[in-house]
Structures are given as structure tokens and as C-alpha cells.
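Methods — Computational structure assignment.
A single polypeptide chain was analysed. Its primary sequence is given first, followed by the predicted tertiary structure written as C-alpha cells.
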Amino acid sequence: MQYPRGFQLLARKKPLAVSVFALSIGLPLLSAHVTAQDSEPPLEEVTVTGIRGSLAQSLDVKRDATSIVDAISSEDIGKFPDKNVADSLQRIPGVSVDRIWGEGRDIFVRGTDSTLNRTLMNGQNVSSAYWWANDNPSRGFNYSILASELVSSLEVYKSPEARHDEGSIGGMVNVRTRRPMDLDPLTINVSAEGVYSDLPDEWDPQFSGLVSWKNDAETFGVLASFNSQTRTMRRDGLEVFPTNDLYTVTDQNGATYEDVYVPWGGGSAIFNQDRERDTANVTLQFRPTDAWDIALNYVKSDMDMDNSNQNYLFLVGGYKIPNGDTVTDPVFIPTSDGRQALVGGTIENPNSIGVADEPIVRDAFVESEVLDLDAEYAGDGWLLHMQAGKTSAEGGSTKDRNYWFEGDSRETINFGPNTNEFSFPDVDPLDGSAIHLNAANLRDWVRIMEDDETYAQADLDFEVQWGFIESVKVGAKFRDHTIENNRDVGGVDTSNAAIADQVAALNAITLADVSSGPSPVLHSEAATAGSLTQYAFMDIDLAAQKIDSILDAGAMTYSQDQRAYYKINEEITAGYAQADFAAGNLRGNFGVRVVQTDQTSNAYIDGTLGAVSRSYTDTLPSVNVIYDLRDDIILRAAASRAMARPTFQNLSSNIVINATSGTATAGNPELEPIMADQFEFGAEWYFAEASLLAATYFNKDLSTFVFTDTQPEQIDGDTINVTRPYNAPNGADIQGLELQYQQDLGLGFGFLANYTWTDAEVPANEDGTQLELPGNSEDQFNASVYYENDVVSMRVSYNMRSESYGGLTSGSQLATDKYDQWDATADWTLTDNFTVFATAVNFTNEIIYQRTTDGLPVGFYENGPRYSVGLRYRF
């Protein structure tokens, strides 16, 4: 919702602050109906550019906000080397990102998981979807679909107001797009860039353009922008696949070890992706009279991601141990639940399946669009805001073909917190003829996930003179949100006599028959002495000729996978009342939001489509208090109750039983929403232009959080170990401290840094398991040093996020090791209109390390550095 802060500022009668603030975030100034009593002459427009000017704009947003807010302006976004919005957001205090695919995709705010934070565009939800088979729609936002050039400003609300949409506990991000009335009568921005990705050794073109026009009377304007990015990605990964399955391990002397966690397998992986992303935005803005401001905004983002993942695998728990193979000199580590996990030894029997190569070829896509109508009418001391629209997204894969080559061999494994080593005494990984295709394991997934929402809201803001209360806001909103997941599975029925010849032909194909040579040398930074760094590599074109030609001729048939289907609908109705107050140096707001959620979860259980419905109502009060101690010192305090709903995948009512292992996985439609009672207070000192010293303490008391656990359940008379999400019985306490320092040092130099400390205390579960709060990192740090003059602008940035945590597996919790990254950017102004720029991202080539807290490695991922050079034109 765009109106309340601008309206409130006008009510405070500070014209200069209003002008700077509205210009910095792209808001239209309110009409003369509200400001007619102000007799000052019109202000001349002052344009501030450069890094220093953009930082000053962001501080204006923070300083004038009626809650605890941090912001980044469009100018500042352009000075970072970021290619999507998440990478820009991680420069803000308390915000960190997940870079598992080399660029930001999900954000974490103040120690909370990405699913507990919402992202809105111009105050409304944006539907998003994912392409990867193992991804599921969440309450978070897929930032990879949103180009940074689309953005006017980014605002992170860390303390809610009653007028804000519910659903965020860590923070709510509002992405404001550009509007033609906020720009010059004719504005043209064009940039062309070449991006070099070091790991795949490829250059890719990128292009963006914006044209904005408004008539002389400023009653009509139109803006159109387009961004096209092509990117060649490669990610090297050393992986282990832990499970919750328990086995009996027998050593060479016949000694047995009961209830041992054994990884299903793991491997040496290379992921390649050719990504094309096109994002378009068209905005029409009407001001037919001084009272009306109407904007129609359309955004569409399309991504195509042709990708492949090849993994040369060991199969300890997937094939060898269940086959009864013994382990020579087994090595175990203790796990947090009192058991142990196998991490070393040689798994014997050279005549059982022990080596595999799993190439996966995907034709994937993600599409997202928004159509939004936003209208404001300014009356005499009141403002009516109306907004309605529809957003939809679709993602998945039209092809997700899994090939499977296998062979017999022993396996030798050696795992540690930073070690993933395995070898095959009976097979040379570079010899593709040693392993052959297994037609029974060929698979194709055609998966489509859809996310749709329609929304409508109305807000009324009016001035009052009720003692210290200056204005009152009331409003209502309705959202109808549906998530649906579908998957068709293709396979080869090897028992079908009609295709016996095709099956025989498939099984006769070796990896050598479809290989054009070895893989690149992998894991230059993560590998240790015994890591597998090169193996025979499947050629996608050869596989299409020799394997797909047989499959597509009728050997592979498809059917709906009912176990993967779910459809969840939520109808959300909310209403709020909020009062803004001021008394001397004291100002702020208080209010309450009441929201009802009607939820229906549909899924197949034992072949029958069923539904589980529930409704709940939440009351969410909030108060924000600001005290202007001096003109340059502001004290803030806030208290509120916030809520976040569980993710859609967790709310699914389906259950999938594995007939081989006798275990099952399931969702939980009875999950309760997460409530948080929270408060914070802080101080901000604006000691010079574009300079700030600030500290904020925050505390969040979570009623629960969601974790995954395996427990025995009675299903059709049988006792089955079912893995499903649960509400933690005791919740969690989060407290933290944000520190910010920003200063213009003079002579063109400047510095900014922020540090966030977060302490999360999670009581032990009923079974005694001690968890760390998922998504939390205790320490986050950002720093940038910049220099600029009339010709040159340069910035070097550093970002660090300490260890963070995930779900439970193999008796302990998943953890991602501390990660830090260095980036840099430089601009050289050739003329008033032309600028040459260059960027460097992750130029120290940092590695992402994932493991369990007990020391079992899970994934070591290397994405490599990226560099770019480009030319920007502005008129």
C-alpha cells in the first residue's frame, strides 16, 4: 500500500521531507485537496546522483518511516553488481540470502527461515514457481525471476503496522516498481553487457531498456521496460545423500552394528544450465484531475532453463548394505540421537551393484505475471485507496529425463566434515564401458506447479483532531490463493513382452556408447586427495540419438503420479484499523489487524482424492513509537504480534509409502500457523549528510516452528515409520542486535557497514532432540568501501553469513557452513549520457559447505566467479 506514509508525512506538514521521501521511493505527491493549506511556493526539483546521493535517499526513507524500515534506492541497486533483487537485499542489515545456485534466490530476515518472510510488489503478493524437481512452492519468493532493473526501491519492514499484510515474522519486503509520473517527461535508459562465467568459461549477453513518457499536463504517462539475461551456469558438487533409514552393518569379522544411519549414496556432480530470462513491465498512469491518481501495472517474467546434472555415484545404502554386503574396517561417528552413522570403510562384494552414473537432462521453465490496478482519490482531508489484481505463475519441466548406468564393484568411502572421498576398486570411472544402461531405472518427470492469486482491497485514510491522534486508517482485503502441483511419470515396463527387443537394446548400451570423452576436471577448490574429480561423461546429443530414439518410439509410457499431486486453496479475509499520533517530539501509530484463513488441502490417499479443511482467525495488534530526541537523533520502539502460515508442501494431505523400505513421507494439513510476540527498540544518529550510526535490539517469541521428524504410525493396520512435518511443542526465542554505520569520508570516499547478531534458543523436543532454529545464522556482516568523483565510481563489497541450519536427517540437523563473498563494481562516465561499467561477483570463488551438525558431509558446491563489462545510456 503506497498511500499511508506519504499521507502521514503531509499531515505532519514537512514539505521538504515529503518531497525528498516521495521522490526517493517513487510515490506521487498527494493532490492539492490535502495540501492546499500549505502556502509555501513550489520547491525546485533537485536531482542527486551517484553512490553518495543514492545512500542519502535510502536514509531519507529510513528516517521518515513510521516503523522500523531499511531501504535501497534504484540508484544504489545499479551501483551493486547484482542481477536480481535478492542479491541487492542482502546488503541490508539482518537480511541474508541462499546462494546455492550461485545467485540469491531466497531471503532470511533476522534469524528466521525464508518461509517466514514475505515479499510484495507494490504492496501485493507476486506468484512464483520453481523449475527444479525437488523444489516446492513456499511462502517465500523466487527472487531469480525478478530483474533488478525493474525496481524503483526496495523496502524491508522489520516492525509491522496494522495496515501491512500479515504473514511475515522476520520482515516484509516491498518491491516498488517505477512509474512514469516520477520520471522526466521523456526518460530513456539502455544498457548492454557481456557477462563472463569463469567455471563454464563462457560469455553471455545481457540487455535492458526503459522508456518513459508523460504529457506536458502530467495527466497521462506510460512506461515500458524490458530486461533480457542469458547466463551459462555451471556448478560442481561433491554430494552425500543422508537418510533416516537404519541398517545393520556387518564387518569382515562378522561383528554387527545395529541401528546405523547409512547414506543412500552420493557422488561427484556437475550441473550445467543455459538460462534465458526475459522480464517486461508496462505501466500506464492517469491523473485526470488533481484528485485522482490511477496506475495500471503489468509485469511478466519468463525463464527457460535447459539444464543437465550428471552425478557419478556410490551406492552404500541404496544397493550395497541392503544387499547384505559386509564392510571392511568400518568407521562410525556418533549422532545426536544416540545412534551412529557409517562414514568410512570398504563395502565388499565385487559382484553386486556398487557404481552408477546418473545423468539428468531437463527442459525447465518458470513464468510469472502480475496485472495490478491501483487507484487513489484525495478528498478534503481524506484519501481513498483501492487496489485489485491477479498474479499467476507456472513452473516445472516439460522434460526431466533420468538416465541410469550401473555396474558391479566394491566401494571405499571416507567422509568427514570437509571430506568427501570415494573410489571403486573394481571400476575405473574414466572407462565408460564398465557400466551399462539399466532400462528399469530410466525415468522422465513432466512436472507442472501453478500458483494463482486474485486480490482486492480498499483503504480509507482521513485526518482527525482527536487529541494527539492526527489520522485514522481503516481497510479491508480479500485474497483467493491456490497452489497446485501435478506430475506425470514416464518409465519403461521391462516386463512387457511387446517391447522386449527395445529393452534388450537399451540394456546393451554402455556409458562409452554415449560418451564423447571425460568430464571437465571438477571441484578445484573443494576436492581433497581422494575425491573423484573426473569421469566418463554422457553426451546429451549422443544420448538423444541412441537412447531417446528408442524411448520416444514407444518404449517409455507415462501416467499421472497421484502421490505428487496436491492442491491447496486459501481464502484470506483481513480488516484493520490504525491510528497515527503525534505529540511534541513523539509520534507513531497503533492498531490491530484481524485475519481469517479458510484453508482446503486436496491430495490422493490410496488412489482416492480427499480434502482436509480448516479455518482459523488471528488478531494481530501492533504499536510503533518514534521520539525525535534531536533533529539528528531518533529513538524508536515497536511491539506487535505477527504470524506466518506453514508452507504449502508441508500442508499437503498426501502420504507416499515406499513399499521397498516400508517407510512413508507425508504432509500435515493440521499444522498450526506460527505466531510471534515481538518487540524492538533502537536509536539512529544522522550525524552528517549520507551518514548514520544506528543500533536496534529485537526480540521474537515464537509459539512454534515447523520441523520434520520420523515417527511410527498405524496405517491400514500396519506400523510404518512416517516422516512428516510437525509443530515444535515449545517454539523458540530469538533475540538480536543490528548495528549500522555509514559515513561520507570526504574527497569522494565513503564507507558503510552493518552487523547483525542473532541468538535463537530452541527447547529440546519431547524425544530429547536439541534443534537449532532453521534458517538462523548467529552472525551476519556487510561492508562496502566506495570512491566516486565526476568521472569514476567504484565500490568493493563484502558479505558474510555464519553457519545456518535446516531440517533433521541421519540423527542430527543439516547445517550450511559460514559463507562469505567479495564483489566489486566500477563505473566510468564517458559523457553526460554514456557510462562504461564493470562488475565482479564472488571473485574469490568461495565454496558452499553443507553437512550435518555431527559431521556427515552433504554437499560441497562451487559456483565460480563472474565478471561483466557493459555500456549504459541514459537520457
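Note: The mean pLDDT is 87.
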